[in-house]
Design goal:
Length: 118
């Protein structure tokens, strides 16, 4: 392999690393439902920061998908694990939970979780 190709490959790897840096700063951990409260773990791998967390819940019982809850609000994240609580009464059934973290109106993290309420 020639020096030119090696340099080109290194530049490409560095550019890719720069473009993906910070993409995994915020992640969602466990999601649980107890005592009429949805517990969502939000992990912050960076410095403390205020972000917007959006939760959208769809009831998927009986092969339909009906939105039953949507809210976005500011959350002050500390470094490490953070718990976001959503007080909501969910009937027994199956649900899809759509979770988003937004920083400065830009969505940085999103995940969909399945939830069964007995």
């Amino acid at each position: 392999m020639s020096i030119g190709r090696i340099i080109c490959l290194l530049v490409l790897v560095c550019a890719l690393a720069a473009l993906t840096a910070g993409c995994t700063t915020y992640t969602f951990g466990d999601v649980a439902y107890t005592d009429e409260t949805l517990h969502v773990m939000v992990n912050n791998g960076d410095e403390p920061r205020q972000v917007t967390v959006q939760v959208t819940i769809f009831d998927t019982t009986e092969f339909a998908q009906t939105e039953v809850y949507r809210k976005a609000e500011y959350m002050d994240l500390v470094t490490g694990a953070n718990e976001y609580l959503v007080p909501i009464s969910l009937h027994p059934g199956t649900y899809k939970i759509y979770l988003y973290v937004m920083v400065d109106d830009t969505r940085t993290t999103s995940v969909i979780r399945d939830l069964t309420v007995s």
